[in-house]
Structures are given as structure tokens and as C-alpha cells.
Write a structure and sequence with these properties.
alpha+beta; elongated
Length: about 100
């Protein structure tokens, strides 16, 4: 069972959060009400594999990190499909208090 990120965020004083993708700050999941969501739904929304999910802090900022196996890319008929371990994508989202 993965760590309960919702419980940890609520314990840190968060009620409504935004998740900002570090790779593309324009990609934001806004106004996520933690009392209405569970960890499984949030990780699915963020595309994070529950087995790799973690909550971490760096210089007063809080992040949800993990890895996601990318969707199987299209490949030409007759070619061997790519090894899934070769297409794992690291994900990192900054957790910010939402302005509601």
C-alpha cells in the first residue's frame, strides 16, 4: 500500500491545493480539495505510479514525486515494441496552497 499523501498534506495544514508540474509550469491541477479526494485518485490524476509516489520537501517547498510508465508509444507493424523500463518518465509536482 502506498503512503497516504492526502493524510500527510492535511497534517501539514493543506486543505485545497494546486499541483504544478515542474517540467511545464503551465500544466497545473488547480483547486484540489483534499477532503473530497483520496490518494489513489490524486496519483491517478497526476499520472504517478503509486509504488513510486513520495512527498518531499526542498528549501521550504513541498513536492509530490514519482515515476510513471509512459503510454505505449505507437510503433510500426513488425517492429518489436519498446521495453517499458526504457520509457519510464520521472514526475515532480510542486504542492501549493490554492487561492480559493
Amino acid at each position: 500500500m502506498e503512503k497516504d499523501l492526502v493524510k500527510d498534506l492535511v497534517a501539514k495544514g493543506f486543505e485545497v491545493v494546486d499541483f504544478v508540474d515542474i517540467r511545464d509550469p503551465k500544466h497545473v491541477f488547480e483547486e484540489i480539495y483534499l477532503k473530497e479526494e483520496d490518494t489513489e485518485n490524486i496519483l491517478e490524476m497526476l499520472g504517478i505510479d503509486p509504488d513510486t509516489a513520495a512527498l518531499s520537501g526542498e528549501q521550504e517547498k513541498l513536492f509530490v514525486t514519482g515515476e510513471s510508465a509512459a503510454l505505449d508509444p505507437y510503433y510500426r507493424q513488425g517492429e518489436e515494441p519498446p521495453n517499458r523500463k526504457d520509457v519510464i518518465v520521472p514526475l515532480k509536482y510542486e504542492v501549493k496552497e490554492a487561492a480559493v
